[in-house]
Amino acid sequence: MIKKIFKILKVLLVGTVWSFVYVYTARTVMIAAWNFDILNLRDWQVINTFWESGGKIKTGKDYLFVGMLLALIPLWFWGWRLFCRVSYIKILLFPLTWYNNRMIKKYGENTPHITLKNMGMTQSKPNMEEIIEQRLKETAKPREKETGKIRRSIQEKISASEKK
Length: 164
Known about the structure:
- This protein is mostly helical.
- Helices cover 74% and strands 0% of the residues.
């Protein structure tokens, strides 16, 4: 339950931070390239009046502008999903792992090391054929019949009583 709560909090936090960063970046790019502010209602009204008065998309720059406008929301969702999958613990620990790998490479490259093989005997699990053979051997052993056991116990009792 706590894991789910942390996951939801991560999604919300990442979504909030990503939304601010994305809107700022998209707004900056759109203003720099087309002098269009995506947060300004007046700019959207200019596009609406252009389209209503029969405006046409003619140049490649216009196609790129419409493509950017259409890609704003899918790119926002894609980035949100991408950044939710990132392991931020790995990012925070990256300097330590980088330094550790660097030291291993620096000092552990030419040092002799011992590779231990076959440290112990492991008992493999018997396969089906071995189990069947073992059971056949057990059943093939001659078993004493009940009558033989009774006769032997009677003889032991008789010989014990005669010795007294």
